[in-house]
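Researcher: Let's run the pair from yesterday's discussion. Sequence first, then tokens, for each.
Model: Starting with the first of the pair.
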Amino acid sequence: MKIIFATGNKNKLLEIQSIMDGMGYDIITAHDAGIDTDPEENGESFEENALIKARAVYELSDRSAIVMSDDSGLCIDALGGEQGLLGIHSARFMGHDTSYDIKNKEILKRLVGVQDKDRAARFVCAVAAILPSGREIVVREAMEGFISHETAGANGFGYDPVFYLPEFGKTSAEISPEAKNLISHRGKALRHMRAVLAEADI
């Protein structure tokens, strides 16, 4: 059986394939499945946005595959958390076409003078799956940390260079992809979904 994942992000797809490896599913993108859709992500939570994307792909599929999607973002307490400046709007912050180098610098600029204890943040990820039967499953996980005072690291992507992990003493862009997959919001959510799918009647 195939899993059609509603993403065009190749970095994300590689991460997903690595975490879901061994389940016996062929994981492909919606584009690879011949599905072209770009629904408006106008939900009020990560869960709602993940379902919006999954439902759009499911409606155009032949119902023979599991359709999955995720929605994730960086929630910074000092900038309003999940409903704040980033949160569910993380990908759209400063515009889709703005580089993350510029976005990360803007975050650091907005937090100038904010003390370490007040720089708490978390990456949140909701993963939605729609089974061929139409049954919908949604899980949510998070990775806790702080916003650093400067960018660091060349691994990862997006906001990783400003997300500081105190247990490592590094940003999530400074640790290996393997280490990140073990603790990341997306890694946790995908493993959670993997466990649910393993018990599901598909």
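Model: Moving on to the second of the pair.
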Amino acid sequence: MKFSILPITFFFLLLFGVSAQAQRVSVSANVDSSNMVIGDKFQLHLTTSLPQNAALESIDLTALKEVENLDVEAETNWDTTQVGQDIVLKKDLTLQVWDSGYYWIPEIPFVLKQNGASNIYKTNRIPINVASVILQDSIQLADIKDIIREQANWEDYLFLIVAFLMICFAVLAYYLWQRRQAQKAAPPILEIKLPAHEIALTALNTLKGEKLWQQGAIKKYQSRLTYTIREYLENRYEIPALESTTDEILRSLKKVDFDSSWKDKLQNILQVADLVKFAKAKPPADFHDRVWQEAEDFVIATKVKPVIIEAEKETV
């Protein structure tokens, strides 16, 4: 059987050319320094090199913005240069870390289109070490030499003795005057403290009327909502909820008379609010009204119920 090798040779050359062009695509990431202290700003440099028949569709910075205690302060536009027959794109991001520890700059996905197909390329992960601020004194102080002291006598302390007696007399006179005035004053007005559930329900209704999340103030809305719940838990169950983490609150509730059926919903409300406040999470729109309703239901269901004592009927 006879056949021409020319079409086959052309096919392999075409395949090799497409593969070579695909191999010319590269993405990379690097930082100015991997060691810094809290609050330092540093640059993350993103670079992609691609042939002229390819184009950058987009990059996804979601994973970077979700790193805890890491903020993206600014970013530049793409800088385009030509190196030989390839196009090189560069972008710089200004980052800042707000807590010490060991972090990873995550992989950044690049979506590149070549030969009619879209492919995803990811940059390398980068470790960074953030240390606490260390203050060092640059001034060396000389030792203090002792002074030559003369022998003291009682006359040296005469002024202090007289001053002390005068202060004692003044304090005693003020105390007697205050006591006499207190006896003349009217009895103090007793402050009536509202029940914990009334305080919470009033705060929830006020929050709902302000329509904060509808105006884009999601973080403020979630902060107010969780503060109301924490304040209610502290007033209702006498636990330090305002100063505790979500896990510490749940552990404290195990020691009091708390309906455990609300544990999962309460944990979900507090944890999602923490993500909104500290990790800049964006829950769906229907979440805000639903979590408000769950907070109101929780307060109503767990409020202190009045004890009704029925008087025994007298028998004739």
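Researcher: Give me one sentence on the second I can quote.
Model: Residues 158-184 form the longest helix (27 residues).
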